[in-house]
Amino acid sequence: MSQVIPEKPLRVVVWSTGTIGRHAIVGVDAHPDLELVGVWTSTPEKHGQDAGLLAGLDRELGIRATTDRDELVALRPDCVVHGAMTDDRVFESIADLTELVRDGVNVVSSGPVILLHRTGTLPDEMIEAIDEAGRQGNASLHVNGIDPGFANDVLPLVLTSLSQRIDHVVVSEIADYSTYYQPVVMRDLFGFGQPLDGADTKPLLWEPGILTTAWGPVVRLIAEGLGVRLDEPLVEEVDRRPAERDTKTVSLDVAEGTMGAVRFRVIGTVDGVPRVTLEHVTRTAPDQVPEWPTPAEGDGCYRIEITGEPCMKLEFTHHGEHGDHNVSGMIVTAQRLINAIPAVVAAKPGLVTALDLPLVTGRGLVAGTGTEGER
């Protein structure tokens, strides 16, 4: 399939004004193929405030944020960029997204990541309910981002196009999360700063099966892209380590002896042999657990390693123009969704994955060419 180019700017609503939502507002405003027509906020104090000011721009955009869902649906936007927090309300958010597509609104969303792939995680009837809502509204839903998302689905699959034989694909995030501002994720989901040995304080993420629920869709999507059927269940490995000294992060303080770093893997095997592995190496200070993998440069990276013929290794890094890799992590998450909007609007109704979309690029965003930021 060729790249999708809309005939006229697509009308877009940004759904949230938080960490991802602020960047999404900026991204939609800068995109010549898109027109920002509405913004949703969950915060009553932000209701009625201009979207440009909420996004940190130095100008107003003439779009007022609202807490009224139906007001935004009534605008009949072509697409919603959904950046609201879903990690702590997975099934409620699935219901929200399903209702949007039933109402005829295409959606690109950063979560819940359980929807990155269609099979193996959620019951088939839940996926069929999304598809049916899409058929009723003639609208599509696409969930993606950077991780889970582009860095460990599209990027590794593109790299495998150079392979003659593939023995094992390993995709990794290796990062220092000390500047990552997501207190709920850091404290409640990962358990940073919490006791390592308290059963009553063990985060849900480390319970058996939860990693497979969250990152298994990535492993299964790569396997589908490679045409292999994985053994079930997927294999999980977790290694949590205590902080060796008191450490401060932007989300929370990590006391010495509490959880300071974690390395986990979700492994897809074929006949017992590892073929696709998802790995995270997450620290709250760059010098923690030095024997674990570290980025070749900077504070974080995504690493793809393919063994076979030939053996290949790709390290993908990013950092903000005026910030660190955690700032740019939010930007690339938002932009992967924003740049996919034309393809998702043109896609078949229902849930669509990275395997269903044509080439997605940063078309129109090259600075100084007379297109970037135009209306």
From TrEMBL:
It is an enzyme of class 1 (oxidoreductase). It comes from the Bacteria. It holds the Pfam family DAP_DH_C. This is 4-hydroxy-tetrahydrodipicolinate reductase. Keywords: Oxidoreductase. One of its GO terms (molecular function) is 4-hydroxy-tetrahydrodipicolinate reductase. Its EC number is 1.17.1.8. Residues 152-360 form the 2,4-diaminopentanoate dehydrogenase C-terminal domain.
